[in-house]
Specification:
Helices cover 20% and strands 17% of the residues. It has helices spanning 36-46, 69-72, 76-83, and strands at 89-94, 101-107, 110-116.
């Protein structure tokens, strides 16, 4: 850059502003049956660690809701359609009119049954 030389630059056209609407974020919980503390405990089962190995705000896995009974019409057929041949699946169910929650983890090496209360 020479101090006595005039500045010349290329004028570019204005940037295009995208009008595409992005999906809004959600603040609803990922489950109505389990909470973040349960998810942390389930994570400890997966990693075969002590139940308090992870906190409710810091666990290494993400959970994706694949089947919800009131949304997907919970039947054996809908379960097999969405979960057949899937590995690393956590199955959680709540017994009606109680606070009992049952859970299974389907890992590549078999099924480990656990009960949340």
């Amino acid at each position: 850059m020479a101090p006595n030389r005039p500045i010349s630059s290329v004028n570019l056209p204005p940037r295009m502003i995208s009008k595409k609407k992005l999906p809004s974020g959600t603040t609803e919980p990922f489950s109505t049956i389990i909470n973040e503390a349960h998810a942390a405990e389930i994570t400890s089962w997966i990693d075969k660690k002590k139940a308090d190995a992870y906190s409710a705000t810091n666990y290494p896995y993400g959970f994706k809701l694949r089947l919800r009974g009131n949304r997907d019409n919970f039947t054996p057929a809908s379960f097999w359609k969405l979960c057949y041949k899937q590995t690393n699946v956590v199955v959680v169910t709540k017994i009606n009119d109680t606070d009992r929650i049952l859970g299974d983890i389907i890992l590549p090496d078999g099924i480990n049954c656990k009960i949340l209360e």
